[in-house]
Write a structure and sequence with these properties.
The chain has about 950 residues and is an alpha+beta fold. Among the domains are: about 40-280, Methylamine Dehydrogenase, Chain H, CATH 2.130.10.10; about 445-535, no CATH class; about 630-735, Immunoglobulins (Immunoglobulin-like, Sandwich), CATH 2.60.40.10; about 735-835; about 840-968, Heat Shock Protein 90 (2-Layer Sandwich). The protein has a 5-stranded mixed β-sheet with strand order 59-65-64-61-62, with no helix packed on it. Strands 66-67-68-70-69 form a 5-stranded mixed β-sheet, covered by helices on one side. Strands 1-28-27-26 form a 4-stranded antiparallel β-sheet, with no helix packed on it. A hairpin with a 2-residue loop joins strand 32 and strand 33 (about 355-360). Helix 5 packs antiparallel against helix 6. The chain is elongated and about 185 Å long.
């Protein structure tokens, strides 16, 4: 265990046994129990890790304490802790916390990770009583059955072999010479490979060791179950210390050579030069069973007892208890000419050199309840009472003033002596002025703002300021006047009025904060500007220009220069020193409303009344504190815990962030303030004051860095920061790639829409072209060819002249038939009619057409059909008929053939049409449309529209063959 210096207890030990802990001057005592957050009352061990956390071993689990709240680790939430009872704690040089449990082996903690060691690692006994790291950074472990040493991650048992006797270990210490002492069932000293066993006189109890310590003089002390043993540097054996018979559980020493002994049942013993002093329960400690002592780096002393945790801290504040001071409803403090202090409470007391004596008036004042005491410049003592008026005591003469003698009211609140020697008396029902034995009274009808008086002050101009329960009044040359101060404070409870050396007037209110009236300008100060409280009961100003004020939250001080600066720079934050829980005022309620509610003594002491007695502050003994260490303890994203190590990548969610932060300060933390900022979201720092959680909702996805700063009210310029960076991943529909994909999709959709529209336009245009082509083909294949046939018939008829009338009549009849046919075909072509009616078959239609063309042209045309006929749809039959017709007409008109053959071949899934002639032939590659003939082009278009193949085979002088293959 680290060396503990608890020299501060010397003062306590010198006090009478019947004294109250509240009377301890210079130190505050704080006790925690299970209702304050401890898992169990029994506190067995302490340690402090490099991050400044205090670790507390209790019988109910391991506890981490930051000064404000306890965090418990046990078997329920920490699997590495196999047993809740933590018996010993040690922090090794590498910052690892070693945890010895009572039946669960060893566990370690570092950077948020717990690890356990048990039988698997070589620890054969799980009851760990002591852990020690030697100067070679080797960790030793003592158990109920054996002494072990770590080698890497394994434990090796040392006792029971190599000349080292078996031992049950309860304490391990390495002395200044490098020798290792292990005590338990016996006492061993290990020097390299040599073991020396020490035995004490007496039975088993004399030799059962509970604690070992080497003091500064090199002596070894061994605490046993029945006392204390000592061995000097040059002594060969141990000597029992007489007068100590209880079990010595823990040992420590201080720089003054005092040995501090924690015992089982007798509290703490101080041993020096053979003398023993005791600090026992219940006067000072919650229990007489002391299990551990520890001094942290803030110089706090921690005491682990059987029934609670104790912290002792140096403080410049002391509460001096007086008889019947508990829960008094009023109290005033005033200094007399001789330096003594009058403290008026349920009874009147007088403090001389810090010692209180009860003061009883005799005669007319016997048994009265005193509210306040005032000494005027002439040395006359004035006493204000609770219902008995005011008494004027001049030497042996006592004069009582009540309503019968002209006093406005018999309940006295305040006294004031003005420059002209008048005595002003504030009461529950108005103000009275006494001069030359005469009273002048001022009430609400006279212009007083309210009847209940709380404070009186005469400023340097001679005006009287009267603070009441409802506003402030200003009496100028005997007349009440209204000004901006009176108007602004008319609804405030003005309990304190002070004038500074520069003429500034300060008004303290019950809940509205502090006000300054200077240079015709009124400035308001509240907790928003940095005050510790909005309730100001009294204002004192010391010779250094520092204001001392009491309020709802205790006592606080602030320099007047800082307050003046706030008036010019509202954003400035002053340095405020708060005296509260850490100074022993956790259950203290400050008093005010009856004057004087505080006193600044001639030697610089600050005194204020409270419900527990007068509170004294020695400003020169204020304990300096370092900057509190800000930490982030927990991060919840959408209600789920997030890891605190590394850069966080939070999954997509609702954007709800909750950050729990704190500051490590083992003294009470009422002086600590916080501010935080979420970079990437907040533009300015958020003043959190004492709130320790930051909430954010609907955070968008992005990169963030949360920063929290902790600082003391008394030094806001010095801050410590903690931060954590994280990225909040967006939902896929909010990711950049999704937006890019959507953009690309929109572009693609626009392109598809454009292409579709252009396709439709092209389709419509192609349909127009196809329709034009179709009309052209139909006109070519029907109307033009029909007209051509009619023209040929008419020419033949004309060529006969007057002869052969029968032949001419026959030719004219053919011409009329052709005209009718041509008209019908043209009509069908115009209306895009098809042979919807049942046809006689394509073969039959081709045969009829061939016969008609043969008659017209007088050329032999043979038509034949091969294969098994299959049904064709009317449009296909029409196109085949038009193709064959065009091919026959081309043959008879241009080829000059002797024979023409038309063949229709039905094949599997296709039909072929052949038109062959033995005419003059032509060169197909040389054929071009001359702007008037489109026969071949029309036939090819018809075939291709049907998905077929069109082939023209011809050669000059060798005839022509046209083949059209059409799928069925």
């Amino acid at each position: 265990m680290a060396r503990v210096a608890i020299y501060l207890l010397v003062f306590m030990l010198q006090l009478p046994a019947a004294a109250s802990p509240r009377g301890l001057s210079g130190y505050s005592l704080r006790v925690w129990h299970t209702q304050d957050g401890l898992p169990e009352e029994t506190v067995q061990a302490f340690a402090q890790t490099p991050d400044r956390y205090l670790w507390i071993g209790t019988s109910g689990g391991l506890v981490r304490f930051d000064g404000a709240q306890f965090v418990v680790f046990d078997r329920e939430n920490t699997p590495a802790l196999r047993e809740n009872s933590v018996f010993t704690l040690v922090v090794s040089s590498d910052g690892v916390l070693w945890i010895g449990t009572d039946g669960g082996g060893i566990a370690t903690y570092q950077r948020g990770v717990f690890r356990s060691y048990s039988n698997k690692e070589g620890l054969t006994n799980p009851f760990v009583r002591a852990i020690c790291e030697d100067r070679n950074k080797v960790v030793w472990v003592g158990t109920d059955d054996g002494l072990f040493r770590f080698s890497g991650d394994k434990l090796t048992r040392i006792d029971g072999q190599g000349g080292v006797p078996e031992i049950a270990v309860h304490a391990i210490v390495q002395d200044s010479h490098g020798k290792l002492w292990a005590g338990g069932s016996t006492l061993l000293m290990l020097d390299g490979n040599t073991a020396t066993e020490y035995r004490f006189q007496g039975g088993f109890g004399e030799n059962r060791i509970k604690s070992i310590l080497e003091t500064g003089d090199g002596a070894i002390w061994a605490g046993t179950v029945s006392g204390l043993q000592h061995k000097g540097v040059h002594d060969a054996s141990f000597t029992r210390i007489s007068g100590i018979t209880s079990t010595v559980r823990v040992l420590s020493d201080d720089l003054n050579g005092t040995l501090w002994i924690g015992t089982i049942g007798e509290g703490i013993l101080a041993y020096q030069s053979g003398r023993i002093s005791k600090l026992t329960a219940p006067n000072y400690l919650p229990s007489g069973t002391i299990l551990s002592l520890f001094k942290d780096i803030e110089q706090n002393i921690w005491v682990g007892t059987q029934t609670g945790l104790v912290r002792l801290s140096a403080t410049p504040v002391s509460t001096l208890p007086i008889l019947d001071a508990e829960d008094s409803d009023f109290s005033t403090i005033s200094q007399d000419r001789d330096g003594s202090l009058w403290v008026a409470s349920t009874h009147l007391h007088r403090f001389i050199d810090g010692k209180a004596t009860s003061f009883e008036f005799r005669g007319p004042l016997a048994g009265i309840k005193v509210r306040n005491v005032f000494r005027d410049r002439a040395g006359v003592l004035w006493v204000g009472t609770d219902g008995r008026g005011a008494f004027r005591i001049k030497g042996s003469q006592i004069e009582q003033f009540t309503t019968r003698k002209g006093l406005v009211n018999d309940f006295i609140r305040a006294f004031l002596e003005s420059r002209d020697g008048s005595i002003w008396i504030g009461t529950d029902e108005g103000v009275s002025r006494w001069k030359s034995g005469e009273f002048t009274n001022y009430r609400v009808p006279d212009g007083l703002s309210y009847f209940s008086i709380r404070a009186l002050l005469e400023d340097r101009a001679g005006d009287l300021w009267i603070g009441t329960e409802r506003g402030v009044s200003r009496l100028h040359q005997g007349v009440f006047v209204r000004d901006p101060v009176v108007e602004r404070l008319q609804t405030e409870k003005v309990w304190a009025i002070h004038e500074d050396p520069e003429g500034g007037l300060w008004f303290g209110t019950r809940g509205g904060g502090l006000f300054r009236w200077k240079s015709q300008r009124l400035t308001a100060y509240t907790t928003a500007q940095g005050l510790a409280s909005n309730g100001i009961y009294h204002i004192l100003e010391d010779r250094n220009g520092r204001f001392w004020m009491t309020g709802l939250n205790g006592i606080f001080s602030i320099t007047r220069s800082d307050l003046d600066r706030i008036a010019d720079v509202p954003s400035y934050r002053p340095a405020v020193t708060l005296y509260g829980i850490s100074d022993g005022l956790e259950t203290t309620q400050m008093q005010g409303g009856t004057q004087p509610a505080g006193s600044l003594t001639s030697n610089g002491e600050i005194w204020f009344p409270s419900n527990k007695g007068p509170v004294r502050i020695l400003p020169e003994e204020t304990v300096a504190t370092d900057v509190p260490s800000a930490v982030i303890e927990r991060v919840l994203a959408d209600g789920r815990d997030a890891p605190l190590s590394g850069k966080l990548a939070l999954p997509p969610g609702d954007g709800k962030l909750e950050v729990h932060y704190s500051a490590i300060r083992l003294r009470s933390q009422e002086r600590i303030r916080f501010k935080y900022k979420l970079e990437g979201f907040d533009n300015e720092w958020t003043e959190a004051n004492q709130r320790r959680v930051a909430y954010y909702t609907n955070l968008p996805a992005g990169q963030y860095h949360f920063r929290v700063a902790a600082f003391e009210m008394s030094d806001p310029e010095k801050v410590s920061e903690a931060g954590i960076a994280f990225s909040w991943q967006p939902h896929f529909y909010r990711a950049a790639w999704f937006y890019l994909l959507c953009l690309l999709a929109l572009a693609a959709a626009a392109w598809v829409a454009h292409e579709f529209r252009m396709g439709e336009a092209h389709a419509r245009f192609q349909a127009v072209l196809e329709e034009r082509g179709r009309v052209a083909r139909e006109m070519h294949d029907t109307l033009i060819q029909g007209c051509g046939s009619v023209s040929a018939l008419l020419e033949a008829s004309s060529a006969l002249g007057d002869g052969a009338p029968e032949m001419k009549r026959e030719l004219l009849e053919f011409a009329r038939d052709q005209v009718r046919t041509t008209i019908d075909e043209a009509r069908n072509a115009v209306w895009n009619l098809r042979h919807q009616a049942a046809s006689s078959g394509i073969g039959s239609m081709l045969s009829q057409m061939a016969q008609q063309v043969s008659i017209e042209s007088r050329i032999r045309i043979v038509c034949e059909t091969t294969g098994k006929p299959s049904a064709l749809d009317p449009p296909t039959e029409h196109d085949i008929l038009m193709i064959a017709r065009e091919a026959l007409h081309n043959a008879v008109q241009h080829a000059q053939p002797h024979n023409v053959q038309l063949r229709l071949c039905f094949e599997t899934r296709k039909v072929r049409v052949f038109v062959m002639d033995d005419g003059c032939g032509f060169e197909p590659s040389a054929v071009r449309s001359n702007g008037a003939h489109y026969g071949l082009i029309g036939m090819r278009e018809r075939v291709e529209r049907l998905g077929g193949r069109f082939v023209v085979t011809s050669k000059a002088g060798q005839g022509t063959q046209i083949e059209a293959t059409i799928p069925t």
